[in-house]
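User: Some background: our group keeps a shared notebook of sequences we're curious about, and every so often someone picks one and asks for a predicted structure to add to the entry. Today it's my turn. The entry only has the sequence so far, pasted here. Could you supply the structure so I can complete it?
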Amino acid sequence: MTNNRSANAHRDILAQWVITLGGLSAIGGMLVLFLFLAWAALSSFGGAGSVSGWGTEFPILLFGSLKGAFYGLSLSFPLAILAAVYVSHMMKPRWRNLIKGIFELMATVPTVIVGFLGALWLAPALLANPLAVVMALVTIPLLAGAGLFILFRKKSGLDGLELFWVLPLLVAGVYLAHVLGLWIQDTWFGGAVHLWLAETMGIQFQTLNGVVVAFALGFAVIPVVFTICEDALSSVPKSMSQAVLAMGGTHWQAIRDVVLPLARPGLLAAALIGFGRAVGETMIILMVTGNTPTLSPSPLTGMRSLAADIALAFQQPSPDGSSQGIFLSAFLLLIMSLLIHSLAETVRLGFGAKYRILHHRVSTP
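Assistant: Of course. Here's the predicted structure to add to the notebook entry:
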């Protein structure tokens, strides 16, 4: 018995040392990476000619990173919140696990494949029929809203299966937007909206633009944002929404007046983490933006980001072989990511503490 206790004690000590060593190695590696990039970035100001040139490009690169992240999050964040609300509070548990599994599967898709499809399929399709995006903002909500209205008139309450009734209507809305977009383009814009904009209004319409980035980067960001939003919404104590129902309120009133306000810090953390994920994305931005150095905020033009600039630097090295600009871009990108994720973690920790206190108050008789 004594030998077994001694052996178990030694195993516990060994496990503690291994865990401690692993944690310290991760922290030390991150610290070494930060210090190395900081040293390389600061030492580049010693008189390299390329640094002054990079200084003129920096506003363009920073603006491109923020522009791409903004357009990607502007599409993914609203869809992720709506999906998280529906999955966490309206869907049956068995279907809930299926939908969450689909979002987790989306996260495993390599971003190079997303960028490839965006550049070779989505961008030419949008150039051929750009009005389809505008018409989809009308046809999809109209058909889906009409279908849900008819469905709710025939039954009371939600059973979590509305998604499977609405999916065919979503497909029909996309097809109708495509048909209407082509018809309007052929009737009023001479069959080419991008040429009409350039000749009539002087607006530049690039094949690889912010709209393509919104769809491609939004696809990559949605799984991350959805997972965090769903966790935040599911963490709201059920007794809070049940109290609204007990007072005669509807399910939607409980979500709107109780669940969403209480989950707001978690939703903000999801937005920040999604934004940080989009800022650091490389392959999608590299493949679907055209890497156009511009300060135009228009969704019809491309952009060039810090991450893409680092990748392009290895394909197009400077004539003198200097790499100071690369280290500066990498260091600033690291700083941006650390600041965004630190802010998101601060919000998340405050969110967790708030709900621990709330849950204690609600559960205490």
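Suggested note for the entry: The mean pLDDT is 81. The domain at 48-130+205-363 is CATH 1.10.3720.10 (MetI-like fold).
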